[in-house]
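Example record

The entry below shows one chain as it appears in the dataset: sequence first, then C-alpha coordinates.
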Amino acid sequence: MDMKQGRCDALLERHGRSFASELGVDISRNTPSPLFRVFTFALLASTRISADIAMHAARALAAQGWTTAAGMAQATWRERTDALNRAGYARYDEKTSSQLADSCAHLLDQYHGDLRQLRQRAERDPGFERKRLKQCKGIGDVGVDIFFRETQAAWPELYPFADKLSLRAARHLELGNSAGDLAQWVDRATYPRFVAALVRCELAGSHADIVNAAPR
Protein backbone atom coordinates (compact mmCIF):
# COMPACT_ATOMS: atom_id res chain seq x y z
CA MET A 1 0.00 0.00 0.00
CA ASP A 2 1.20 3.50 -0.83
CA MET A 3 2.45 5.25 2.32
CA LYS A 4 0.31 8.35 1.79
CA GLN A 5 -2.80 6.33 1.00
CA GLY A 6 -2.14 4.46 4.23
CA ARG A 7 -2.13 7.76 6.09
CA CYS A 8 -5.47 8.68 4.51
CA ASP A 9 -6.95 5.37 5.61
CA ALA A 10 -5.57 5.76 9.13
CA LEU A 11 -6.90 9.31 9.28
CA LEU A 12 -10.41 8.21 8.30
CA GLU A 13 -10.26 5.29 10.72
CA ARG A 14 -9.39 7.54 13.65
CA HIS A 15 -11.12 10.85 12.86
CA GLY A 16 -13.46 10.16 9.95
CA ARG A 17 -16.64 11.80 11.15
CA SER A 18 -18.08 15.03 9.81
CA PHE A 19 -19.10 17.73 12.25
CA ALA A 20 -22.60 17.65 10.74
CA SER A 21 -22.92 13.99 11.71
CA GLU A 22 -21.73 14.83 15.22
CA LEU A 23 -24.53 17.39 15.35
CA GLY A 24 -26.87 14.55 14.47
CA VAL A 25 -27.95 15.89 11.09
CA ASP A 26 -27.78 14.50 7.57
CA ILE A 27 -26.56 17.53 5.64
CA SER A 28 -26.80 15.63 2.34
CA ARG A 29 -30.59 15.90 2.57
CA ASN A 30 -30.23 19.62 1.80
CA THR A 31 -33.25 20.55 3.90
CA PRO A 32 -33.68 23.73 5.96
CA SER A 33 -33.16 22.40 9.49
CA PRO A 34 -29.87 20.51 8.91
CA LEU A 35 -28.50 23.48 6.96
CA PHE A 36 -29.48 25.87 9.72
CA ARG A 37 -27.98 23.68 12.42
CA VAL A 38 -24.66 23.57 10.55
CA PHE A 39 -24.91 27.35 10.11
CA THR A 40 -25.43 27.71 13.88
CA PHE A 41 -22.41 25.52 14.60
CA ALA A 42 -20.33 27.56 12.15
CA LEU A 43 -21.29 30.77 13.96
CA LEU A 44 -20.51 29.27 17.37
CA ALA A 45 -17.22 27.67 16.25
CA SER A 46 -15.84 30.77 14.56
CA THR A 47 -15.12 32.53 17.87
CA ARG A 48 -12.04 31.96 20.02
CA ILE A 49 -13.47 28.89 21.66
CA SER A 50 -12.79 25.17 21.32
CA ALA A 51 -14.62 23.12 18.72
CA ASP A 52 -15.80 20.77 21.48
CA ILE A 53 -17.46 23.59 23.40
CA ALA A 54 -18.97 24.99 20.20
CA MET A 55 -20.38 21.54 19.38
CA HIS A 56 -21.75 21.12 22.89
CA ALA A 57 -23.39 24.55 22.65
CA ALA A 58 -24.87 23.84 19.21
CA ARG A 59 -26.38 20.60 20.45
CA ALA A 60 -27.71 22.33 23.55
CA LEU A 61 -29.50 24.93 21.43
CA ALA A 62 -31.00 22.16 19.28
CA ALA A 63 -32.14 20.33 22.41
CA GLN A 64 -34.27 23.38 23.20
CA GLY A 65 -36.03 22.88 19.88
CA TRP A 66 -34.28 25.79 18.15
CA THR A 67 -33.42 23.91 14.98
CA THR A 68 -34.66 26.47 12.44
CA ALA A 69 -34.18 30.19 12.02
CA ALA A 70 -37.82 30.75 12.99
CA GLY A 71 -37.46 28.60 16.10
CA MET A 72 -34.25 30.32 17.19
CA ALA A 73 -35.80 33.75 16.62
CA GLN A 74 -38.76 32.91 18.85
CA ALA A 75 -36.49 32.28 21.82
CA THR A 76 -35.73 35.26 24.02
CA TRP A 77 -32.25 36.69 24.34
CA ARG A 78 -32.13 35.47 27.94
CA GLU A 79 -33.23 31.94 26.99
CA ARG A 80 -30.51 31.68 24.35
CA THR A 81 -27.89 33.19 26.67
CA ASP A 82 -28.75 30.83 29.50
CA ALA A 83 -28.65 27.79 27.19
CA LEU A 84 -25.22 28.80 25.89
CA ASN A 85 -23.95 29.47 29.40
CA ARG A 86 -25.11 26.09 30.68
CA ALA A 87 -23.35 24.45 27.73
CA GLY A 88 -20.03 25.99 28.77
CA TYR A 89 -20.10 28.74 26.16
CA ALA A 90 -19.83 31.29 28.95
CA ARG A 91 -17.28 33.75 27.64
CA TYR A 92 -19.25 34.72 24.55
CA ASP A 93 -22.78 33.77 25.56
CA GLU A 94 -24.33 37.25 25.62
CA LYS A 95 -22.70 38.49 22.42
CA THR A 96 -23.44 35.26 20.57
CA SER A 97 -27.06 35.27 21.70
CA SER A 98 -27.43 38.70 20.08
CA GLN A 99 -25.64 37.55 16.93
CA LEU A 100 -27.96 34.56 16.64
CA ALA A 101 -30.98 36.84 16.92
CA ASP A 102 -29.64 39.24 14.30
CA SER A 103 -28.64 36.44 11.92
CA CYS A 104 -31.99 34.69 12.22
CA ALA A 105 -33.83 37.96 11.62
CA HIS A 106 -31.73 38.48 8.49
CA LEU A 107 -32.29 34.92 7.24
CA LEU A 108 -36.03 35.21 7.83
CA ASP A 109 -36.28 38.61 6.18
CA GLN A 110 -34.16 37.80 3.15
CA TYR A 111 -34.64 34.05 2.65
CA HIS A 112 -37.70 33.02 4.71
CA GLY A 113 -35.25 31.27 7.03
CA ASP A 114 -34.19 28.84 4.30
CA LEU A 115 -30.50 28.77 3.39
CA ARG A 116 -31.39 27.05 0.13
CA GLN A 117 -32.93 30.35 -0.94
CA LEU A 118 -29.64 32.09 -0.13
CA ARG A 119 -27.97 29.58 -2.42
CA GLN A 120 -30.52 30.21 -5.15
CA ARG A 121 -30.16 33.99 -4.88
CA ALA A 122 -26.38 33.55 -5.11
CA GLU A 123 -26.90 31.54 -8.31
CA ARG A 124 -24.97 28.64 -6.76
CA ASP A 125 -21.75 30.64 -7.04
CA PRO A 126 -19.47 30.00 -4.03
CA GLY A 127 -18.13 33.57 -4.14
CA PHE A 128 -21.62 35.05 -4.00
CA GLU A 129 -22.70 32.50 -1.38
CA ARG A 130 -19.78 33.62 0.77
CA LYS A 131 -20.75 37.28 0.42
CA ARG A 132 -24.35 36.60 1.38
CA LEU A 133 -23.43 34.42 4.36
CA LYS A 134 -21.11 37.13 5.64
CA GLN A 135 -24.06 39.51 5.78
CA CYS A 136 -25.21 37.48 8.79
CA LYS A 137 -23.95 38.82 12.12
CA GLY A 138 -21.28 36.59 13.62
CA ILE A 139 -20.34 34.95 10.33
CA GLY A 140 -16.99 35.95 8.86
CA ASP A 141 -14.64 34.05 6.59
CA VAL A 142 -13.88 31.45 9.27
CA GLY A 143 -17.59 30.81 9.79
CA VAL A 144 -18.19 30.54 6.05
CA ASP A 145 -15.27 28.12 5.74
CA ILE A 146 -16.79 25.87 8.40
CA PHE A 147 -20.19 26.03 6.71
CA PHE A 148 -18.71 25.32 3.28
CA ARG A 149 -16.60 22.45 4.60
CA GLU A 150 -19.69 20.64 5.89
CA THR A 151 -22.23 21.75 3.30
CA GLN A 152 -20.21 20.61 0.28
CA ALA A 153 -21.87 17.25 0.90
CA ALA A 154 -25.14 18.88 -0.22
CA TRP A 155 -24.04 21.75 -2.49
CA PRO A 156 -21.92 20.32 -5.34
CA GLU A 157 -20.64 23.73 -6.41
CA LEU A 158 -18.54 23.88 -3.23
CA TYR A 159 -16.67 20.64 -3.92
CA PRO A 160 -13.78 20.25 -3.37
CA PHE A 161 -13.41 22.63 -0.44
CA ALA A 162 -10.77 22.62 2.29
CA ASP A 163 -10.27 25.22 5.00
CA LYS A 164 -7.04 26.40 6.59
CA LEU A 165 -7.08 23.87 9.43
CA SER A 166 -7.56 20.91 7.12
CA LEU A 167 -4.82 22.12 4.77
CA ARG A 168 -2.45 22.62 7.69
CA ALA A 169 -2.97 19.00 8.74
CA ALA A 170 -2.60 17.86 5.14
CA ARG A 171 0.78 19.53 4.90
CA HIS A 172 1.90 17.89 8.14
CA LEU A 173 0.88 14.52 6.71
CA GLU A 174 2.38 15.31 3.30
CA LEU A 175 -0.96 14.81 1.56
CA GLY A 176 -0.98 18.02 -0.44
CA ASN A 177 -1.39 21.76 -0.35
CA SER A 178 -4.81 22.35 -1.88
CA ALA A 179 -8.35 21.02 -1.95
CA GLY A 180 -7.63 19.62 -5.39
CA ASP A 181 -4.69 17.68 -4.01
CA LEU A 182 -6.84 16.23 -1.22
CA ALA A 183 -9.63 15.21 -3.59
CA GLN A 184 -7.24 12.75 -5.25
CA TRP A 185 -7.09 10.54 -2.15
CA VAL A 186 -10.78 9.70 -1.62
CA ASP A 187 -13.97 9.51 -3.64
CA ARG A 188 -16.37 12.43 -3.75
CA ALA A 189 -18.83 10.94 -1.24
CA THR A 190 -16.05 10.40 1.32
CA TYR A 191 -14.36 13.75 0.78
CA PRO A 192 -16.36 15.83 3.34
CA ARG A 193 -15.56 13.27 6.04
CA PHE A 194 -11.94 13.25 4.94
CA VAL A 195 -11.59 17.03 5.26
CA ALA A 196 -13.34 16.97 8.63
CA ALA A 197 -10.93 14.22 9.72
CA LEU A 198 -8.00 16.46 8.82
CA VAL A 199 -9.50 19.25 10.93
CA ARG A 200 -9.95 16.89 13.87
CA CYS A 201 -6.37 15.69 13.44
CA GLU A 202 -5.11 19.27 13.51
CA LEU A 203 -7.17 20.17 16.57
CA ALA A 204 -6.02 17.02 18.41
CA GLY A 205 -2.41 17.37 17.31
CA SER A 206 -2.46 13.70 16.32
CA HIS A 207 -0.33 13.93 13.18
CA ALA A 208 2.36 11.64 14.56
CA ASP A 209 -0.22 9.06 15.63
CA ILE A 210 -1.64 8.97 12.11
CA VAL A 211 1.82 8.56 10.59
CA ASN A 212 2.65 5.76 13.01
CA ALA A 213 -0.67 4.01 12.40
CA ALA A 214 -0.20 3.94 8.63
CA PRO A 215 1.55 1.00 6.98
CA ARG A 216 5.16 1.75 6.03
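Notes for this example: Residues 93-111 form the longest helix (19 residues). The mean pLDDT is 96.
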